[in-house]
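> Could you send the Glycerol-3-phosphate dehydrogenase [NAD(P)+] prediction when you get a chance?

Sure thing. Input:
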Amino acid sequence: MAEQKHIVVIGAGAFGTALALSCLKTGSKVTLYARRSDFVDHLQSTRQNERYLPGIELPADLSITSDLSCINQADIVLLVIPAQKTDTVLMELKPYLRPTIPLVICAKGMHREQKSLLSGIARRLLINPVAVLSGPSFADELAQGKPTAVMLACHDIVVAESLARILRHSTLRCYASDDMIGVQAAGAIKNVMAIASGIADGLNLGCNSRAALLARGLAEMSRIGVSLGGRAETFLGLAGMGDLILTATSEKSRNYSFGLELGAGRSIEDILAERHHVTEGFVTTAAVFEMTQSMGVYAPLTAAMNDILHKRIPILQVIDDILSKQSEREF
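Output:
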C-alpha cells in the first residue's frame, strides 16, 4: 500500500477549494490554507465556502487552517492564488517550505511587474522543484466530481509524471508534460482571448466572428508561446485549445463573462468593482502585450485587447481598425 501523501493547498478561493476536494479523492491527507482566520473559522463551522464555491460541502476530513506552519509537514504544496500575488505569497511561504518539497503553481497568468511567467518567479525565490497545473477546469465541476482533464508540467518529466500520478483519480485525468513554458503561456494568454470572445458575443457579432477570433487567437497564443520557448504542439492540447474552448465560450468563465458585460456596454470599473473573484485576463493582457512588444512578436489581438482594456480606446473603434487590415495569408 502506497504511503499516504500530505497535500497543502494555499488559497481557499473557488479553484483552491475545488482542488482540495479533488485531492481528497486520491486518498491523500489534505490541508486547505486561507490567510484570514475569521474566514477559516467560518469554513470550519459551516463546512461551506458560500463566497467562492457555493453549494459544495467541505468534508470533515478536510483540514482548514490559517497557520502557515502546516507546510512543514507537506509532501506537495499547491499554490492557488491570484497570479499578481505570486512573489509576495512565495516570500511568506519560504520560511516554512522544505527545499525538497514540490511546489505546483495553479494560477493562469503572467506577472506584469516582474514581466515573467509564474514559474520564473518561483525559481528565482526558491530552490524547490517547481511545476504548473493547467487545463480546462471550472472549479464547480471539478468539485462536483465531473470528469476533468488537466496538464501537469515540470522541466523534469520524472517529477511531472510522479505528481500527475499522485493527483489523478477516477474523475480527474492528469497528463504529464515537460513543456512548462508552453503550458503556462497557453493558460495565461487564453484569458486574453476569452475576454475578446466575450466582447464579440456581447456585441452580437455572431458565430462566424467568434470562430474566426478563436482560430486566430489560438494561432497568436502559439506564436507567443513558441517565442518564449514553449512547443507549438502544447497549444493544440488541453492547456491550449482545450482551455481556450472552455474559457472563451462559457459565462461561467470570469474572463468571458467580463468581456460579455463589456461588449454589452458596461464600464470596466463597474464590472470589476462588483466582483470578488479575480479576473486574471485583465492584468494579464497588459503583461502579455508588454512582453510581445519587447520581443517583437506579432500579436494583433493582444494589442487590440490592450487598447480596449488599458488605453480605454472605444471598442468599436478598435474593431474597425482590426477589420480594416487584411493579411494575404493565414500563416
